[in-house]
Design goal:
By secondary structure, this protein is α+β, with helices and mostly antiparallel strands. It contains four helices and five strands; from the N terminus they run βααααββββ. InterPro entries: HotDog_dom_sf.
Length: 131
């Protein structure tokens, strides 16, 4: 097993959420919520464009977690909260920060930011792959 990360270690994964990715996520999940797939409906609802799928955006946190913990670990628990909708085309940063780590678990705080605003917060617990 690779070396454990220490409390305070963090990794940030940055990505722009595109229209193409909206289409992929729709195809994978079957989610046809109008604010996510219909630009006219989204703007009538007061958004500037279609809303990024919340779970697609929070899924970027799994990349940060995997890079932080390494290949011998998997997600054992994952909890997130969403502050607000944000539009397709947004460039976001998904950060996982270790709060504690031992051979049985790596605990992390999670945050997704858009510019200087935190739009998703949460926690995760990584466990050994075989657990």
């Amino acid at each position: 097993m690779s070396a454990l990360p220490a409390a305070g270690d963090s990794i940030t994964f940055r990505k722009t959420m595109t229209v193409a990715e909206q289409g992929f996520f729709t195809g994978i999940t079957g989610n046809m919520t109008k604010t996510h797939v219909d630009r006219a409906h989204a703007t009538q609802a007061g958004l500037t464009d279609m809303s990024v799928f919340e779970l697609a955006a929070s899924g970027l946190l799994t990349t940060a977690l995997g890079r932080l913990a390494g290949p011998d670990w998997r997600i054992g628990a994952f909890s997130v909260a969403f502050a607000r909708a944000f539009p397709v085309g947004s460039s976001i940063a998904a950060t996982a920060t270790v709060t504690s780590a031992d051979d049985s678990a790596i605990a992390c705080d999670l945050a997704v930011t858009l510019s200087d605003e935190t739009v998703i917060t949460g926690t995760a617990r990584m466990v050994p792959l075989g657990a």
